[in-house]
Amino acid sequence: MKKLLFSLIAVFAGVGVASAAGASADPCILIASMQGVFKTLRTLAFVGAGFMIAAWGWGYIKDGKGVDMEDLRKKGTGLLVGFTLLFGIGVVLQFLPGISGCAGMGW
Are 99 and 26 in contact (CB under 8 A)? Predict the structure, then answer.
């Protein structure tokens, strides 16, 4: 039920954004105005990964036991997936203006 409700909210939000932009709206203006978000995604990927690694290091130093490879494997997999998704989305969206014919607008 929660998944269905979440998907309905996402659909309604998408319809609202599409209707707010209008049918004749220029996508280049939207892309140029979203450039800060694209750059922020890439930056947050690095900052988040740095804070997570620092927290792990501090935890291992504080405990004094050493590194358990199974614990590191579990945490590292999540970190790699999250970092790859955020950084990958940021990089792909960086090339969006060139692909859509809006090259040079606000970049």
Answer: no
